[in-house]
Write a structure and sequence with these properties.
This protein is α/β, with parallel strands linked by helices. Helices cover about 50% and strands about 15% of the residues. It has two domains: about 220 residues, Rossmann fold (3-Layer(aba) Sandwich), CATH 3.40.50; about 180 residues, Glycogen Phosphorylase B (Rossmann fold), CATH 3.40.50.
């Protein structure tokens, strides 16, 4: 098949799950063209990511004049599909002038995407995340006359379902894939039961480099690692408060923070104000290999998020035989089992997080190793990338046949 993949910003360091799908589909003999609304501006030194960026079509790198001229050309050449797309855009826009203006922007982007997927003879286009790129995708598919689908992650997909016309997207997509049972339940909440048969669980997966990782000894050092975007929903400040609380009680603890984002300044200020320079190390974004090394050098991965989908880094840590300390939200309890392969704590509770960290510090390396072993087995069972790609491959073929 000739497939198209779309997301808002493709080629970020955090897009591991999408790159694995694209790579897996190509290895199965499919031609996959990657498209993105914007080009990421984060620095990366990965040859794989740079290669993906160089082959991706970025819609907003085209000049405004060219984008608008393309709309006129499409309207003249394909008046019927253009009118259908205009009607769809109008029926799914947000209320008010601003909503109409943004929908006009999406329509212009979609017209260029339709041009690209028609030129490349794409048979089916798949979108990740159900917000702005999904709006572009559904309009482009209508204009190009191809089937489309989306993978829903959360949490942002569920923040403003009415504004993003979530229900309409779920109904018009050939199918919707969900990375967790929780994500599917949220879609069921916001859509009629007639759409539910087209909802499928397709979990994000890891490659054999993680799934076949050998067990390594858990270190004695009182060290934890956080990996993720430094954004409000990640709860990093709660984690720092918990670490500071342990330190104030004379309990030795170290924390490595890998990531960057809008909350970095606040994190840096808290390190200085709390005199945590010798306790908390802020490394910024790091390579996949460095992240792997830091996980292995820690007793556990800690993710104190307020809102999540189901983070890939949780799967990676468990696959590397390290337990996880995470909040009991969204899809996380589908992977992390309290007392078996990690700890689950209420979101926002410094006290509960302190307790889990303290238990992990008190546990012997052997005990932590047994938890890590259980975690690795669960990841192998539920998060094999090859199985996820095979499931998507079958769904894509079915969707394309249904459009014919």
């Amino acid at each position: 098949m000739v497939l198209g993949y779309l997301t808002n910003q493709y080629g970020r360091a955090s897009d591991t799950f999408i790159r694995q799908e694209v790579t897996g589909l190509r290895e199965r003999g499919h031609q996959v063209h990657t498209f993105s609304i914007r080009r990421p501006d984060d620095y990366v030194d990965s040859e794989e990511i740079l290669r993906e960026r160089s082959s991706t079509t970025y819609l907003l790198q085209v000049s405004a004049v060219k984008l608008l001229a393309n709309v006129v050309v499409r309207a003249v050449r394909y008046p019927r599909s253009t009118l259908h797309a205009i009607a769809l855009a109008w029926n799914t826009k947000r209320p008010g002038f601003k909503g109409a203006l943004w929908q006009a922007f999406y329509f212009v982007e979609a017209a260029w995407l339709a041009r690209c997927i028609s030129r490349e003879k794409v048979e089916h286009v798949h979108n990740h995340i159900a917000t702005n790129s999904a709006s572009v995708c559904t309009l482009a598919a209508e204009m190009a006359g191809v089937s489309w689908s989306m993978t829903v992650h959360g949490p942002h997909d569920f923040v403003d379902p009415s504004g993003w016309a979530f229900a309409q997207k779920l109904q018009s997509a050939a199918f919707s894939a969900f990375i967790s049972e929780f994500a599917r339940s949220q879609a069921m909440w916001h859509s009629p039961a007639t759409a539910w048969p087209r909802f499928h669980i397709v979990r994000c997966g890891l490659d054999r480099g993680f799934l076949d990782a050998p067990a390594t000894p858990v270190p004695q050092q009182p060290r934890f690692v956080f990996v993720g975007r430094l954004a409000p929903e990640k709860g990093v400040t709660v984690l720092m408060d918990a670490v500071a609380s342990l330190g104030s009680r004379g309990i030795a603890v170290q924390l490595v923070i890998i990531g960057d984002g809008p909350c970095r300044g606040e994190v840096e200020q808290r390190i200085v104000r709390g005199h945590l320079q010798e306790v908390v190390k802020l490394l910024g974004w790091q390579s996949t290999q460095r992240v792997r090394e830091e996980i292995l050098a820690s007793r556990a991965l800690v993710l104190p998020s307020f809102a999540e989908g189901l983070p890939i880094v949780l799967m990676e840590a468990l696959a590397l035989h390290r337990p996880a300390i995470a909040t009991q939200i969204a899809g996380i309890p589908e992977l992390v089992e309290h007392g078996v392969n990690g700890w689950l704590v209420p979101p926002g509770s410094v006290e509960a997080l302190c307790g889990a960290l303290h238990e992990a510090l008190e546990a012997s390396p052997t005990q932590l190793g047994e938890m890590g072993k259980a975690g690795a087995a669960r990841v192998r069972e539920r998060h094999d990338a090859s199985s996820s790609v095979a499931a998507l491959e079958a769904l894509f073929a079915q969707a394309a046949r249904g459009r014919q």
